[in-house]
Amino acid sequence: MSVLQNDASVSKELLCRMLDSVIFEQQSLEAFRFICEKEICKFKYSKDFLLVDKVCEHFKDAIGSNSSSIYYYRKLLFDILTGEYYCRSSKIKKVIEDLTISERIRKGDFGDIFVSYKQGIPNKYTTKVINQNFKDKLVRDFNYNEISILKDIHHPNVLKLIEIKESLQKLYIVTEYYNGGNLSDYYQRYLNENNKPFSEEIVQYIMRQIFDAMKYLHNKKIIHRKLSLENIMINYEDEKDRINNNVMKSKIIIVDFEYAKYLKKDELTSTVLGVVIYMDPILLNKLNKVEKYKNANYDEKVDIWSLGIIFYELLYGLSPFHSDNMEELLNKVNKGDYFVPLTFSKEAISFLNCMLQYNPKKRLTADKLYNHKFLRRNIKEFSKINTNELKDLKFIDNSNIKINTENNELIWNYFGSGFEDDL
Asked: In terms of C-beta density within 10 A (0-12 exposed, 13-18 middle, 19 or more buried), how is residue 422 classed?
């Protein structure tokens, strides 16, 4: 509903506040504001566009007849009065009822993400602004699915929904704001500053929280399908910890449920979705239109593969299948070889191998991985691999393990290789 249909004075106040935050040539701004104030006070139209036309008619006389300028200001005024004007730069703000939308954080697949504030509350929030005019039914379904799932999930390590707001053309999903940024940015800064990846102690701390959340989601038969370092957030409850940038004092949060979906018991799905470098081999082959995968389906185990990639990245600094292009990535994933530094503990290698299995049926569930010894044991009890004792490590097929002594690495192949479910 238009603000004009409620109270003309409120509309005037809102309009002036909006225009004050927009940087125009001063003379044009003053003329536009003066005419808008005059017309809003004078007329109480039931149709917003009638008011807009009247204002723009006067506006044309005030600053000239440039058609592009008239069109721009006409659209601006209409968007403001109907609640559709949102931030295009950090200097422009939009007010939706008690919610003020400020600077944009990032662009999503179906909507932009903004910092926001609620009237009378000092906390920051995050608001996703979604255009409701999508003609594609699939996109609309994703939006409604995301909202349905966010309303249903309540876990300390999962994105928390605050409220949903709606206008004629846009949907506003208001969620908690996480002050530590995303894990990808944090990790890149850490690599640059320390010239080495995370220790196993830090990775254990992070993965324990992630798997607590994934166990919860998968038990509710929710598949995420968009797991990546960018979609894992860091939050500090203590301002000192945030200033010190100590991830070991943070809470880890899984966000971005754009591609999430409920699966019924034993249900499989086939839609190709995800972040390419974290994609399960089935999805990656379907994306590349490999014929034998054309009708292949998948379940929540695609999330387990993505978490295996994330785990490796955090311990090694690069993806196990680091590639410059899609063809190379597909070839590496289908070949199955990746390097495992001998600096990894036995527990870390076991944990990794329980996730990075080409065959989804061989991957452990989130429930079992949550109880894996890598996440449960004291890090001081972990042990390194002795290359002379490889036969004692319970490999299923030792022939697929090669030792690169020059680089102090194992060359691992997951086709028929790996630890047994050694928990």
From this structure: middle
Q: Which amino acid is at 58?
A: H
Distance linking the first and last C-alpha atoms of the chain: 58
- Rounded Cα gap, residues 219 and 367, in angstroms: 8
Would you state the pLDDT for residue 199? 96
Tokens, residue 236: 């500090």
**Does residue 131 have a pLDDT over 90?**
no
Distance CA 333, CA 152 (A): 35
CA–CA separation, 135 and 163 (whole Å): 25
Helices (H), 181-287: 183-194, 200-219, 239-244, 281-287
Whole-angstrom distance, CA of residue 257 vs CA of residue 304 = 16
Containing 252, the helix (H) or strand (E) segment is strand 251-254
Q: Dihedrals φ, ψ of 166, to 5°?
A: -145, 140
Tell me how far apart the alpha carbons of residues 197 and 191 are, in angstroms, rounded to a whole number: 6
Alpha helices in 43-178 (DSSP H): 48-63, 67-81, 137-152
For residue range 108-128, what is the model confidence (pLDDT) as tens digits?
Answer: 777 889 999 888 888 899 999
Question: Chain-wide mean pLDDT for the chain?
Answer: 78
Q: Which helix (H) or strand (E) holds 306?
A: helix 301-316
Note the pLDDT tens digit of each residue in 255-305. Answer: 999 999 999 988 999 999 999 999 999 999 999 999 999 999 999 999 999
pTM: 0.75
